[in-house]
Amino acid sequence: xxxxxxxxxxxxxxxxxxxxxxxxxxxxxxxxxxxxxxxxxxxxxxxxxxxxxxxxxxxxxxxxxxxxxxxxxxxxxxxxxxxxxxxxxxxxxxxxxxxxxxxxxxxxxxxxxxxxxxxxxxxxxxxxxxxxxxxxxxxxxxxxxxxxxxxxxxxxxxxxxxxxxxxxxxxxxxxxxxxxxxxxxxxxxxxxxxxxxxxxxxxxxxxxxxxxxxxxxxxxxxxxxxxxxxxxxxxxxxxxxxxxxxxxxxxxxxxxxxxxxxxxxxxxxxxxxxxxxxxxxxxxxxxxxxxxxxxxxxxxxxxxxxxxxxxxxxxxxxxxxxxxxxxxxxxxxxxxxxxxxxxxxxxxxxxxxxxxxxxxxxxxxxxxxxxxxxxxxxxxxxxxxxxxxxxxxxxxxxxxxxxxxx
Length: 406
Known about the structure:
By secondary structure, the protein is of the alpha/beta class. Helix content is 32%, strand content 25%. A hairpin with a 3-residue loop joins strand 1 (19-25) and strand 2 (29-36).
């Protein structure tokens, strides 16, 4: 397995003229890459916010809104299609090409985004077993779904199972996980954390809730990694020094910033190993007319999430029989800012010999799926994947309790 990810498509495995676009439709952000099909070269990259955020920062809120409400479902479908078209337009303008130059489009996403792209009833994702029964790959004209690419073929892979979506499948494909001789781990940290662990033709996947405790109403000043979010922080004596996405005044704290803040408080004895705040709270991170703070409740919310993620990984390690990890990929918008030393201090992830951090691994994996040859390989890859349900797993429950410790 190569040390560095290479998401270029193979020469000759795609049409010899025109362009392709690989898209990862995330809950918060939509990543897109424009690819020259003749040689697989990336000709442009776009990152746009998912406009569905106005209906709720997390997947569950949007699913609840759309289930049983045709008008809401139609609106969520319209917004995601328009956002994809915005991405196509931006990439085309930047590269100086027209809509008819687009020949292949691949769109991956979590299970909810799959339903919204194809305008499917998302109600099955709102209750046990949280799975869209009969989900199929979409391969057909992009224009049939409303995309502004009149000559393009669109491929939308179906989810793996439950809340493990095609974005996780793209991560697995990108890492060539099935062919790895040693255990390789992919952790896509977003509103929903998708985890895959595998080697030698065996892959286990699971999902764990993550984003809500970082970035919405569960946090006093939670904010996605957008303009105004504190994404890096350190203690300087009694005060926090921080960096803000886009510069300017801070409006809140995103997941990576929260990790930095809690790690600094733990490192400096402001909280103990149980997560108990040892000084009067809430702790002010940024002053001003509306101080931005971190409370005891925020610390507990973080503990719940990080314990859930690490416990899920432990379950997959047990299933695979993998004591040590040779490689770990951390991805998602969250992953672009994370301080790995601070995450390790807080026991958020297990140790691994090699760690890669990239925000758009799923988009890079989608680039590979612009190739028909690679799409045919998905059949064998899917046959090697096993989904692990966590809620009733005893190992998960035991590890969750153990890993609450900071």
